[in-house]
Amino acid sequence: MLHPQKARLIKKAAVAARRELARLGRPSGDFDASRYFRGSGDLRFHNVGTKTMRALARSIHMAHRDEWSIDEAMAFAGLLMADPYLEVKSLGIEVVVRYRRDFVPRLLPVWKQWLARNQSTNWATTDAIACYLIGPLLLRYPELAPGMRAWARHRNMWVRRAAAAGLIASVRKGHAMDVAYDVARQLHADPHDLIQKAVGWMLREAGKADQARLERYLRADGAEIPRTTVRYAIERFPESKHRALLTATKSTPNTVRGVRLLDRRSLGEGG
Question: Considering the entire predicted model, what is its pTM?
Answer without folding.
Answer: 0.89
